[in-house]
């Protein structure tokens, strides 16, 4: 497609893979994607849909786009959580999440500007190596403070203190956001309860840099390679990740960058392995009817649907009901793909809609294994004026295994300790 269509068109076409150039031509305009897109009901314009975006990428790459096509494409590309629902329902199976990310990169390289809030977020990640703009030295404080508060069974060593084959990777949100630090504390405690010998990286833990990829930053591959080299040098066998975004980063985006000998597992996969082997034993009853929200990065993007449900199924007394949209058809809460930065109004509406779906399923609570979805759905409950509680999956297991460290107990304990934290939502 590259040729004499103008330098911008050539740059955009050159920024897409051969397969993607075929995909943008292959759309049959059937409109199935419009019926399923979680954004479209809240902003029903053609450019929001997969069909609308594909048509305009085709025009831009072909050098026949008008200024209004350019504006509409930028609008549609950034008002998208890259949730992948349009990929699942597309009869041609166009790999839309990959295409949107690559198109964002190609457009940025051709001089078309992305939303200011995303530009600022990328700048923060590059400058501080985390999305919160906090000093790197504070990254491991959650473990030190939780240890002082007595939430662990023993020390949670850094890798330099104990070179373990299993590494727990907390990620930026559970490390720096005070309201989400209980996720990291509960994750580490559950590993201890199962007798796993593991370490954390503490202040040396890097940002996974996956947001650079999500938002179309040129530096992603270079940054990922640096991080992969550091991780590979530690001779770690298994990296356990409790954030769905970091998991997609380390597991999928680092494919071909991180040595294949390094196993990257989401926490729920590892927990299910421990329960299945008998090392972790849910014992106390948790009499609650919950519904499970599939994070896009875990479910649709990586096919992990079973393990989190099996973990929940192993908890005595816990009853799981499914929402109308679940598994591959699970409706996105709007927290992915930088959508919350570009269009916070849409994110709130999407998560409020998801909360209403959970209520309609007859659940007493929503459970999700991702702290970012937890934040998004909690905002959605507030926007929907719903009293439905939203829990991290860890909370259900903790109530069954070690009920003395509930999420609220940890949050209160960390608050009264002498550390630092505070929310500054990415
Ligand atoms: S579902 Fe696929 S083929 Fe149909 S309009 Fe959407 S992108 Fe095109
Ligand atoms: S990736 Fe999700 S939000 Fe984006 S167009 Fe497709 S269905 Fe809509």
- What class would the helix/strand composition place it in? alpha/beta
Outline the low-pLDDT stretches. 419-426
Mean of residue pLDDT values:
92
Which class of the largest domain in CATH terms? Alpha Beta
In the sheet with the most strands, the strands line up as: 2-1-3-4
Radius of gyration, taken over Cα atoms and rounded to an integer in Å:
21 Å
Shape: globular
SS field, number of helical segments: 21
CATH architecture of the largest domain: 3-Layer(aba) Sandwich
How much of the residues is beta strand, in percent? Answer: 5-15%
Helix residue percentage = 40-55%
General description of the model:
This protein is α/β, with parallel strands linked by helices. It folds into three domains: 7-109, Fumarate Reductase Iron-sulfur Protein, Chain B, domain 2 (Orthogonal Bundle); 127-277 and 405-416, Rossmann fold, CATH 3.40.50; 288-403, Rossmann fold (3-Layer(aba) Sandwich), CATH 3.40.50. The chain has 21 helices and eight strands. The protein has helices at 7-15, 18-26, 32-36, 50-61, 67-78, 85-89, 96-109, 116-128, 141-148, 171-176, 181-193, 210-214, 220-233, 244-253, 267-277, 306-313, 339-342, 344-360, 371-383, 393-401, 407-416; strands at 166-169, 198-199, 238-241, 263-266, 288-292, 318-321, 365-368, 390-392. The strands form two sheets. A four-stranded parallel β-sheet has the order 2-1-3-4. Strand 7 (365-368), helix 19 and strand 8 (390-392) form a beta-alpha-beta unit. Helix 11 (181-193) crosses helix 20 (393-401) and helix 11 crosses helix 21 (407-416). The longest helix is centred in the last third of the chain and has 17 residues, at 344-360. The protein is globular, with a radius of gyration of 21 Å. The model is unreliable at 419-426 (pLDDT under 50). The structure holds iron/sulfur cluster (SF4) (2 copies). One iron/sulfur cluster binds next to helix 3 and helix 4. The site of one iron/sulfur cluster has 15 residues, from helix 3 and helix 4.
């Amino acid at each position: 497609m590259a040729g004499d269509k103008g330098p911008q068109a050539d740059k955009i076409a050159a920024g897409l893979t051969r397969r993607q150039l075929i995909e943008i031509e292959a759309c049959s305009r059937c409109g199935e994607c419009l019926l399923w897109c979680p954004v479209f009901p809240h902003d029903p314009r053609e450019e929001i849909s997969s069909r609308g975006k594909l048509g305009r990428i085709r025009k831009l790459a072909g050098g026949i786009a008008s200024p209004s096509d350019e504006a509409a494409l930028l609008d549609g590309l950034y008002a998208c959580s890259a949730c992948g629902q349009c990929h699942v329902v597309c009869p041609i199976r166009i790999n839309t999440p990959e295409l949107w990310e690559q198109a964002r990169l190609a457009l940025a390289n051709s001089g078309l500007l992305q939303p200011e809030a995303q530009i600022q977020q990328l700048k923060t990640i590059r400058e501080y190596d985390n999305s919160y703009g906090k000093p790197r030295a504070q990254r491991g404080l959650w473990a030190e403070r939780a240890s002082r508060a007595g939430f662990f069974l023993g020390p949670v060593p850094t890798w330099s203190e104990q070179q373990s084959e299993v590494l727990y990777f907390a990620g930026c949100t559970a490390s720096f956001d005070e309201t989400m630090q209980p996720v990291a504390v509960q994750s580490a405690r559950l590993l201890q309860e199962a007798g796993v010998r593991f370490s954390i990286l503490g202040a040396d833990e890097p940002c996974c840099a996956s947001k650079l990829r999500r938002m179309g930053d040129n530096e992603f591959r270079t940054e990922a390679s640096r991080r992969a080299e550091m991780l590979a040098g530690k001779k770690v066998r298994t990296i356990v990740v409790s954030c769905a975004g970091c998991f997609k980063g380390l597991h999928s985006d680092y494919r071909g960058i991180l040595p294949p000998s390094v196993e990257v597992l989401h926490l729920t996969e590892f927990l299910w392995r421990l329960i299945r082997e008998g090392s972790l034993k849910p014992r106390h009853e948790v009499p609650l009817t919950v519904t499970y929200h599939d994070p896009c990065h875990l479910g649709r993007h990586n096919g992990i649907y079973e393990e989190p449900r099996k973990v929940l199924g192993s908890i005595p007394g816990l009853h799981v009901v499914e929402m109308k949209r679940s598994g591959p058809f699970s409706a996105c809460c709007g927290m992915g793909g930088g959508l919350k930065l570009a269009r916070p109004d849409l994110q709130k509406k999407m998560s409020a809609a998801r909360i209403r779906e959970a209520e309609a399923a007859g659940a007493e609570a929503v459970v999700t294994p991702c702290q970012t979805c937890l934040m998004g759905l909690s905002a959605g409950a507030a926007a929907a004026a719903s009293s439905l509680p939203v829990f991290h999956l860890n909370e259900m297991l903790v109530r069954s295994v070690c009920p003395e460290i509930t999420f609220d107990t940890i949050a209160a304990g960390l608050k009264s300790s002498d550390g630092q934290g505070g929310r500054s939502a990415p």
